Amino acid sequence: MSQFFFNQRANLVNDVIEGTIIASPWNNLARLESDPAIRVVVRRDLDKNNVAVISGGGSGHEPAHAGLVGKGKLTAAVCGDLFASPSVDAVLTAIQAVTGDAGCLLIVKNYTGDRLNFGLAAEKARRMGYNVEMLIVGDDISLPDNKHPRGIAGTILVHKVAGYFAERGHNLATVLREAQYAAGHTFSLGLALASCHLPQDAETAPRHHADQAELGMGIHGEPGASVIATQNSAEIVTLMAEKLSAALPETGRLAVMINNLGGVSIAEMAILTRELAHTPLQQRIDWLIGPASLVTALDMKGFSLTAIVLEESIEKALLSAVETAGWQTPVQPREISVMPSSLRSTRVEFEPSENSVVADYVERVTGTLSDLEADLNALDAKVGDGDTGSTFAAGARDIADLLQRRQLPLANLATLLALIGERLTVVMGGSSGVLMSIFFTAAGQKLEQGASVAEALNAGLAQMKFYGGADEGDRTMIDALQPALAALAAEPENLQAAFAAAQAGADRTLHASKANAGRASYLNSDSLRGNMDPGAHAVAMVFKALAQK
Fold first, then answer.
1. Is this model's pTM higher than 0.90 or not?
2. pLDDT under 50 in the chain at which residues?
3. Fold of the domain spanning 356-547
4. CA distance 43 to 166
């Protein structure tokens, strides 16, 4: 089973290119008409009076390379198959299509296939009379002693510099010189938790190390230079920043690019950006590029950091506007802004007080819910996620603890209900805590306005129904709570009748084949029938405890 959305494997790259062209914000891209095996994306607004900047390589690195074609960046991108260099003919076709008298610069990542195919195409083009230069980028620092470091994400910064000078009409010698300078001052390091899926019919399992990460990743899913024993974001970014710092010149301001290798969530990229801001390297950073997917490896669960040493012309080039979808405008790092709040405290103010009757009721209710924890969890496991008992018990134990420590306003029932509502939002998780808090808070407010206890509790129920969206018959605790409170409103002193009504309501949930609210609403009728709703059962057992003499 493939882990990759595609139609036909043979047409995958063509489909990627077409989708890129369709979505281009400036409508400035075109596919070069040629042999079907030759895939070249060019600028529609081509000006052959300027130096042409051509790059490319294997596909699977989107938005590189087609998404980087446009004003101020690439003139053309030559797209090979997935992770495979384009052919000599494809590169030569691109050169002929976009190169005028000003000549062209080929920017090539330092992989053997790209060097050979682009290099031979350059030689053939020169023989045909074209003025062609080729720059090989090797920004990867993962293996310091490697004579041929790989060209990875930092290559697109070289594109940016070359495109800037080409767009302004500089000659080929100048464009090459500035691009060479940028390439010589660009340093990248990648890391991944897992390699990428490949789009093929057979399922591929990405390489993964439990609780470890691969440091020194390329952009083709190949193994990293080493495996490190952590997946902690702070430790990882600190280590990468240290290695970048060791490779960088001792002085000079920096622009740093945070590149998503394709499979990292936006949330994680934000965390990694935050971690970078807490490293010593941050002190040298004037500009941030990203976090964004800029040079990917399909869906690799990894990212890379690239630092380029700033010089006046490089900085101008990086900050200049472009018309490409695959570039991120640099931003200056900034301190975290904190806006002062003027919100008044909503905490319930109270003085502890005594009332033996109320204390007895509180003790019965909290004790009942604590004792029911295992039974309610077992019920919930059949129709939900198995935590109803623990959720109710957590609230009950908190109130019981306050009772034991004599920290409840037992003589002021309105304040007591408000306080219970406040505490339940703190200690009860999920929707149950919020719903019960709404119930007690609203009831407390109504009681303070002079309502009876029964009227106040029914007012609390009304608010809980309004906000929660459930009603009687929806297979929730309301199936027991509403009839119980209705009975209480009719006979305020008859707790036995309230219990009988609650129990009858809970029993009806045994036969309900459809839940219209809560987690049970996602289950089929077979999973529900014969299983009592745990919330309704809890309500019935509370009224049973209250009714006991």
1. no
2. 1, 515, 517-528
3. 1.25.40
4. 14
